[in-house]
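Notes continue from the previous slide.

Worked example: a multi-chain complex. Inputs as given:
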Amino acid sequence: EPEVTQTPSHQVTQMGQEVILRCVPISNHLYFYWYRQILGQKVEFLVSFYNNEISEKSEIFDDQFSVERPDGSNFTLKIRSTKLEDSAMYFCASSALPYEQYFGPGTRLTVT
Amino acid sequence: GQQLNQSPQSMFIQEGEDVSMNCTSSSIFNTWLWYKQDPGEGPVLLIALYKAGELTSNGRLTAQFGITRKDSFLNISASIPSDVGIYFCAGQIPGTYKYIFGTGTRLKVLA
């Protein structure tokens, strides 16, 4: 069964550094999303992406964040200058239509 | 902004019992999704609901889209130990691709 994959599974970075989180969505899906989940809390929407552009973003998704689909398979989330409060699990999700979203296993980002 | 409140926050049940949890909001949503999340893993989609009043089953799971579009419930029948985890509802904000997740219900099953 096709699934969303994410790399790395765990990323440790120093405050102020740039990180890129990578995702490979399910191959025939057209809608892509990033979410984050701070430990023990609910899943929070960051951004949705369709037709090579951002379709929705939350207030969390400020100028420090960007997304890109650099080729036909990858979908990336970049954080330009990480802060301590960016420490969280980051989940990529994809869907064929903007309804049933399938999540990847997540990347645990630790900012020190 | 929109918020989804799930209840109960957590529950302990005996294996074999039925479980019911719900998700409520003061806002309406177009689509409801129910997910299960195990520790350290991503949410796994259980059921999707598209129309007010819709009742959908997936094995031992049954979910309904509330008639007011402001709530949804999930039932699990004859619970088993592997049902342990956190269950999240997610609602699609009308006119957007954005989903809001609920606060989660943590289920613990006693064998």
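Summary box: The first strand of chain A starts at residue 5 and ends at 7. The interface with chain B takes residues 4, 31, 33, 35, 42-45, 48, 50, 55-56, 58, 91, 98-106 of chain A (CB under 8 Å).
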